[in-house]
Design brief:
Layout (H helix, E strand, L loop, with lengths): L1 H21 L2 H27 L6 H20 L10 H7 L3 H4 L6
Length: about 110
């Protein structure tokens, strides 16, 4: 469960950093702590339901799935403040090739 907690907190931090970069500094920083708590709460809820014998992973999976969608939408729709950050087209060109390169993570 420790690696799931790390991933949940890191993905929420990633979304917050993208909000700081692409939307507004105040918005991203204001949402940082609530988003980190939400990520940790999803793992705590999962762990509590595991102890109860149910194992409800749905909140964690929804949070992780939508975090990827949000980061990709922010990259597509909002320009970055940095010089080379507006090259989202190269990101979209590389994503379909990623599984074929052999660099994808394998368990």
């Amino acid at each position: 469960m420790a690696n799931q907690a790390d991933f949940a907190v890191q993905s929420m931090g990633l979304i917050s950093s993208q909000l700081v970069d692409r939307i507004n500094i105040r918005t991203g920083l204001a949402l940082l702590v609530p988003m980190l708590l939400l990520g940790a709460a999803s793992v705590i809820y999962w762990r509590a339901t595991e102890w109860a014998g149910v194992g409800n992973v749905l909140p964690y999976e929804i949070l992780q799935g939508y975090s990827v969608v949000i980061v990709l939408l922010l990259a597509m729709l909002s320009p970055s403040r940095y010089t080379r950050g507006n090259r989202a087209g190269t990101l979209w060109q590389r994503i379909p090739c990623y599984p074929r390169t052999g660099y994808a993570w394998r368990p």
